[in-house]
Design brief:
The chain is globular. The protein has helices at about 5-15, 35-45, 60-65, 85-90, 130-135, 155-160, 170-180, 200-210, 225-235; strands at about 30, 50-55, 75-80, 100, 115-120, 135-145, 185-195, 240-250. The relative contact order is 0.19. It has one domain (about 5-250): Vaccinia Virus protein VP39 (Rossmann fold). The chain is of the alpha/beta class and about 250 residues long. InterPro entries: 23S_rRNA_MeTrnsfrase_RlmA, Methyltransf_11, SAM-dependent_MTases_sf. This is Methyltransferase type 11.
Length: about 250
């Protein structure tokens, strides 16, 4: 059995670029929401002529969905803010002639009004509903799987200590913001998903990759807390946390 120090060193050494989570195979699992976002996106792409994916990461999910319909959109575009991911997305989406624009997550989109009939986003850090509405053509659709408030609160509390107050109803807030921006919400779903970490190295890599879980995370800063997580995994077999996911589909009126 590998030691705490060996596992932590391994988790620190793994590159964090892109949104490929295959490294976690056999070391962490996450329950998936029942609606199947990738399948829903592939279906919408099969009916779209101009598609934009926001905060695409390395383009992994977008490319997978684009490969599924018999007729992908004629125009394919995406945005990404982090330069290592930007390079990966441009390479991965080149087969569809995609324009992958560098754009701040909370900034304006570098595209003209009514440029797309489908705008998608999976796990965005910020949702610019005003910009989504602006770039959607009349009758166009926005499909988003979002991260709900309270995601990995159990894991964050293990490092930061318990935090007071309830979690915000993120899906309802997103729906209200979409309506305020002039969109019609046609679907809204919520799911709490079980996540299991089988070793502390997976915890370290996850916290380095999903940086908003514990802002400012480093092994040295949280070594005592990580050692306690390691002891819990040795005792219980896994460390259990929970993710909150919601699906929202909204339409710009004709």
């Amino acid at each position: 059995m590998r030691t705490f120090e060996e596992l932590v060193a391994e988790g620190e050494a793994v590159p964090t670029e892109g949104w490929d989570f295959s490294w976690f195979s056999g070391r962490a699992t996450e329950e998936r929401p029942p609606w199947g976002y990738a399948g829903l996106l592939a279906d919408r792409l099969g009916h779209a002529s101009r598609s934009l994916d926001l905060q695409t990461g390395g383009g992994e999910v977008y490319a997978g969905a684009l490969a599924r319909p018999a007729r992908p959109p004629g125009r394919v575009a995406a945005t990404e803010s982090w330069s290592p991911n930007l390079a990966l997305a441009r390479l991965r989406l080149a087969a569809w002639g995609a324009e992958v624009a560098e754009a701040a997550d909370d900034g304006p989109f570098p595209f003209p009004d009514a440029a797309f009939d489908l705008v998608s986003s999976r796990h965005p850090t910020v949702q610019r509903w005003d910009e989504i509405t602006r770039v959607l053509s009349p009758g166009g659709t926005h499909l988003c799987q979002g991260i709900g408030s309270g995601t990995h609160r159990v894991l964050a509390d293990a490092l930061l200590g318990p935090r007071p107050g309830p979690d915000q109803p993120t899906a309802e807030l997103a729906a209200a913001a979409a309506r305020a921006a002039g969109l019609q919400v046609v679907d809204l779903r919520v799911r709490r998903c079980r996540v299991e970490f089988s070793d502390v190295g997976a915890v370290v890599h996850f916290l380095r990759k999903v940086v908003w879980t514990v802002p400012g995370f480093s092994v040295e800063r949280y070594r005592p807390q990580l050692a306690e997580v390691h002891r819990r995994i040795e005792r219980d077999g896994v460390f259990v946390s929970w993710s909150q996911r919601y699906l929202i589909e909204a339409r710009r009126p004709d």
